[in-house]
Amino acid sequence: VVVDGNAEPSVSIGPFVSEMDEADREREKHETRRLLYVAMTRARDRLYLSSALKQGALVPGRGSLAEVLPESLKPLFGRAAGAFPEVATLGWTGASGQVFEWRLCRQPDKPQPSPSADAPQPARRDLFAPSPVTRGPARRAVTNWLLEREGIEPFGYAAPQESLLGTLVHRMFQFSERASAAVDSGGSIAFARELLRPEERAMIEDPDRLATAAARAWTVMRDRHDLRELMAGGERLYEVPFSMAVTSAGETAVLRGTIDCLIRRTDGSLALVEFKTGRPRPIHQAQLDSYVEAMESAFPGARVEGRLLYLEPPRP
Predict the structure, then answer these.
(1) How far is CA 131 from the centre of its chain?
(2) 139: which strand partners?
(3) 8 A C-beta contact, residue 230 and residue 271
(4) Of 18, 90, 115, 277, which has the maximum CB count within 10 A?
(5) Pairing verdict, β 138-141 and 89-93
(6) Which of 143, 171, 99, 97 is nearest to 290 (CA)?
């Protein structure tokens, strides 16, 4: 017998599965989907998917990342394993109807036979010597690079509850449809609390108070007329990572950042929205300008606009 808070007791006998068991299972899958989303969207240059096959097919284990992959993507692994050597890519159509090409990464060629004993042997390499380092362009976070270039004093670290407040609001926008449904049903605070990770709950004294402040801040932002108008009529993408090479004072650096919300309109134009739950800072506009520049480089000829959306939230 398992009792969860004020919920109904859950009794499981043999193979019987109660409604609470199913709810726990669904929560586990939701967390796995979140982990998979985070893992895949953090890829900068390449994303590799690999798995062991059972009788030529992908058989996901319970709780694995493969279990929450789109059903239409799972057969791709079997097709990749049985593809002819001449096949370099495989096509996959997503739920939106867009077709994606996946490049096959094949096993390396078999090693050549060892040379005979009479053949000259290459010089032995010291396996414990320092590895040769080939230095490429420095990789920098956009904010840190701007702070140095603009000569702006760092604003230090926010208290955990202040930092997590902004994080929760961002996550609610990321899952905006579910968040809106939670608001309409009066469950916005519970939904915000659900978005907190276990390690984050351990950092704060009152998770319920933080979830209440985040739900209130997100609702106020969502209902703003200018934001609704900006986000209407386009595809919304959240937490979009990017890399951009810049040259300053004769040195090249690769800047990395993450756009809170990127809106792709039907006319081909783009809009960037940066959500700020704290007070305005000098670095914010420079950061937004860099994001706009990155998207103009990635989408030549497209009109790109950026918007900072501020809300000074109530202190949690």
Answers:
(1) 32
(2) 254
(3) yes
(4) 277
(5) unpaired
(6) 143
Phi-psi region of 5 (alpha: psi -120 to 50; beta: other; left: phi over 0): left
The answer to whether 49 and 74 are in contact (CB under 8 A) is: no
Cβ atoms of 251 and 39 within 8 Å: the answer is: no
pLDDT tens digits for range 251-309: 788 888 899 899 998 888 999 999 887 778 878 888 899 999 999 999 999 999 999 98
Integer CA distances (angstroms), 253 to 40, 63, 250, 287, in order: 24, 39, 10, 16
Quick: pLDDT tens for 32-73. 888 888 888 888 778 888 888 888 888 888 778 888 888 888
Q: Where are the alpha helices (DSSP H) in 8-159?
A: 19-41, 75-81, 142-150
The long-range contacts involving 190-199, CB below 8 angstroms and separated by at least 24 positions, are: 191/215, 192/168, 192/218, 195/168, 195/171, 196/164, 196/168
Write out the two tokens for 85. 């050597």
User: How many C-beta neighbours within 10 Å does residue 242 have?
Assistant: 18
Q: Give alpha helix (H) positions in the chain.
A: 19-41, 75-81, 142-150, 160-174, 176-184, 188-194, 198-201, 207-222, 225-231, 282-298
